[in-house]
Amino acid sequence: MATYGKIGEFKESEESWTHYIERLEQYFLANEVDEVGKKRAILLSVCGSKTYTLARDLLQPVRPAEATFKKIAGQTNGNADGLSRLPLPVMPDSVPLPGETILLMEHLEGTPVHSGHIKAWTKRDPVLSQCKQKAVHDYHAKERTLEEGQAVHAKNFRYKKTWLPGTLVEKTGPVLARIQLDDGTVIRRHQDHVRVPESAAAAASITSEIPEATPVAISEPVAIFEPDASSANTNSREYHQ
């Protein structure tokens, strides 16, 4: 049976492992290789001795002949199996210890990811973008407290940029209130459409900042000096001289 194409051994200096597996899958498709066991046998036969040795070490305690094709190719578990950890440009003499690989960012001249990347990715992500909008809103939001009997101005929707004076008579919900206008009309408004007059707001803020006076207890009588008539006349004569 004639075969189409040719797959050589894997060379990390020429292509990545992902590209090598993609070419191998096209080879299987062109030659109608559907059996999983046959795909595994072809991969282990053509990948080369160096790659086979590394695959054997990574797959232990399972032998390469017992592992599935996807396991060897690294197509399961988020591409974190088998040869998906290839390639390394230079094979290390020994496996580095955890202490030698921690905090390696301190030895880099520049970070792989900077703030511009994070900003763009956050904007594209539907969940993170909503979290960002809420955080920005909460940062700039101002707490508004409305009380019954408070003098307020309500938005007039009939005429733009106009506000109607009135009194808040009832809070019907966390953000809704009933307002009685000066002409006796009662309307409902959202707190976004209610303003507190600047004079009332300033007075409320000043009142809240004034500390309460603490009474001072006087345990002993205080002597009050009262000049007698002779001393008063003396001071008067000295003043006119």
TrEMBL record:
Tell me the lineage of the source organism.
Eukaryota, Metazoa, Cnidaria, Anthozoa, Hexacorallia
Species source reads: Acropora cervicornis
Q: Which domain of life is it from?
A: Eukaryota
The name this protein carries in UniProt is Uncharacterized protein
